[in-house]
Structures are given as C-alpha cells and as structure tokens.
Amino acid sequence: MTRLLDASGVTVAFGGLTAVNAVSCHVDEGEIVGLIGPNGAGKTTFFNAISGFRQPDRGTVTFKGRNILGLRSHKISRMGMSRTFQIVKPFPEMTVLDNVMVGAFSVHASPARAREAALQALEAVRFAGWAHRLASDLPVAGRKRLEVAKVMACDPKLILLDEVMAGLTPSEHNEMIDAVRNIRNSGITVMIIEHVMPVIMNLCDRIYVLHHGDLICEGAPAAVVRDPEVVRAYLGEDFAL
After folding, report:
1. In what order do the strands lie in the sheet with 66-67?
2. I need a surface site. Which of 25, 170, 173, 196 has the fewest CB within 10 A?
3. pTM of the entire structure?
C-alpha cells in the first residue's frame, strides 16, 4: 500500500499540560482508520496538529512523502488533506450547493468547475437531493452531511472526519456509514474520530486509541476492543462483555 500520512512523535502542549504526547501513526491509501478515546484524550488536538491548524511542539508529519510541518492549513488542504470540525457552522442564508461551492473554491477558481465539484461532492455523500435547499432548513444529520460534502469538494486524497456521527440517530448512523464507505470506494482515504463504537467497528480497518494524550493501543477493531488497557481506560467492562 502507498503511505499517505506518517506522523512520528507528535507532541502538543498547552503550558504545563501535554495534550498529545509523542504520538505516532500512519494511514495508507485506501484505508479507513479510526482514532478513539475518552473526551479530552487529545484526538482533536492531534487532528489540529497534523492538518496545520496548530503546529506541534515536537515530532514530524509527512503527507504523500512531503514534510508538511510549518505549512498553513489551507496549503495542506490544497495538497490533498482536508478535515471536518465537530461544531458545524454552515452559511444558513445560502443553499446547500452554494455552501459546498465555498469549499470547492479553495481549489477551483472557475465558478463552473466549483459548481461541478460541489455537485459531485453532494452525490458522494448521498445528499444531492438537498442541493437547492437553504442550509438553515437542515436537521442535524443534514448539517453533518453538508460538512462532509464541503470537505469532499476540496478534491482530497485524505479526509479527517471529526465526530460526524455525533447527535445522530441509529438510522442516521447507518446512512452516514454508507456515505463514508462510498467516499472510500471513490478512492479517498479516511481517518475518523468517533465515539459511537458500532460505527467504528463497522467502518474501520485499523484503530488508534488515545488516553490522556498517550497512544495506548493500535490494531484491528476486534483486537483493540479486547485490549485490557483500552477496556479499562475507555470502553468499560460492560462493553467488553
């Protein structure tokens, strides 16, 4: 497999608090890789560090074989790594299509090409039927799907999804799982932060587990959920049983 992302010894500190402590991971082309752990474990901070939203204090990050430390987030996005955010903030007075075109304009100067990319992104996340609705009309699940479509419109090779299932119903989880699988099938690699364990178990090829900023486990889903340290730190005995 082709290595897309390689992070080694990534450390992020806020004053005396080390939020991410010498974390190393990799993502290969075509994978869906999970990043799990308790609230405050450092998952989003790690995403921030590898995507240019915060420079790590130590460590190295390469994407497609190129060192990306020091690059701003928009330059990393143009290289092919884009991300969603936990708090979704669409432009409510604009249509869904126009919202997605905002993302597309980061890589396409032509309005016609941006519109085409936006429509393709909406198709990829099974949301084309909402293209001409106002973003203010969207339920939670729709706003989450819009967030993913905006990232897709940036023409990524790797997308980082930060809790796109949060606040969704079980049936909406299944719809989003289908959308993420469709994204992978279209040739885009995925790294996902998620707390909904059935989603992680269904989607991921491999999982990394963070706890208090430390990487405590990595492996296939079936092995990770049986790891005693993961059970103790995050899942609990009831889940293990």
Report:
1. 17-28, 3-14, 58-63, 66-67
2. 170
3. 0.94
Domain range 3-240, its CATH number among 3.90.1010.20, 3.20.20.30, 3.40.50.920, 3.40.50.300:
3.40.50.300
Digit-coded pLDDT (tens) for 184-216: 999 999 999 999 888 898 899 999 999 999 999
What residue spans define the domains of the chain? 3-240
